Amino acid sequence: MVVGLEVHVELATKTKLFSASPNRFGDEPNTNIDPVTLGLPGALPVLNRQAVELAMRLGLALNCTVQKSTFARKNYFYPDMPKAYQISQYDEPINIDGWLDLPNGFRVGIERGHLEEDTGKSTHVGGAGGRIHGSDYSLIDFNRAGVPLVEIVSRPDIRHPEQAKGYINELREILVAVGASDAKMEEGSMRVDANVSVRKPGENFNTRCEIKNVNSVRSLGRAIEYEARRQIALHEADEPVVQQTRHWDENDGRTHTLRSKEDADDYRYFLEPDLVVVDPGIEWIERVRDALPVLPAERRAILANAAGQAANSEAVMVVAERGQDDYVMDVAKLGGDAGVALKHVKEAPELAEQVPVESLATLSKMELSGVITASQAKTIVAVMIESQNVDPEVIAADLGFEAMDNSDLEAMVDQAIAGQPEAWEKFCAGEGKAMGALVGAVMKASKGQADGKAVTALFQTKKP
Fold it and tell me: In this model, does residue 361 exceed pLDDT 70?
């Protein structure tokens, strides 16, 4: 499987790329329009400086070279392109030659990230699946026409649907972190096209097909998997794979032909005569670079280092994606344990919203020192979230949670060994599963107050 992704991202500007009409989602149809949006004769484009800066910000976050760029006319007729051409960047894009590292270390090359204007939106009424074929009529909303886009084109480095999904997830986090876009796939501000081909190992690339406008990460994985299998079946039957644009149908789980795939020649690109060269200069580029926030990968690395976990562990990934890593790091700054805090925040995200950092810091120290057990700490977390009481020491006292005396704990361990001789014999013989029954007996005898780690350690010391 060989996959390259083209991601279209609407930039978070107040106005459109070449006019002062608002860039807003959800407004009444055809209200955010003007002569430039509608392509009326004599209307001239004026480039949005903020769109250029957001494109630069994204490019730098993706390790691209930001360069002098030009705009071109990409000619084709669609009902939702009133000018019959799209202003886009072609042979001189603003961002080139970058890369994106996934949390598992896999690197995907970025070929380019260029600026262009979005199209309007057509709604096909009647027929099946909302497609133009078989519909009764179409409605066109030009609010989206002219909205600034950056198209991020990856190199064909992806070899598995999970890598494609990981790439989109990581890219989405970066987009939000740098403020370039809200990246809401459900609202169309981030849309994915997947170019898919298959080959035998060592062979050259074969003919590819493009799956257009996939609007969820789950659908992307399914669409790539299906399209690869479809092409494999064609190769095995000695039938040609025709280069074409295809549509993913979520209902039947298949891709369907939309049209034959266009090449650059079909668009008759030529330099846009109404716009000048965009040359940001070194000073502007460096100002943008210096203003970049800490990116998601670095935030995860900082959190993982503090918590003593891998940067791609589930807890680190989940908490960082929620933006709650700062809360955990604040716990550590107050002397709390970041690893314990990370565990609780992952399982109870409400902590970051409802419980002061000081309270979780105190709780983590109580748990780490053995004053309370892990299960007791979990109970205290629930009480802190559900009640107005956020003092873990007071809650522990109210619930009667006290550290067990070591002599009492050892007596319970001896009792468990005597009461479950078969489990103890198996444990001594090296069967790790037998430990569950022994620890369970101690936890039952202590009414859940024993520390599981301490119990396990005691059993280990008593092995002959």
Answer: yes
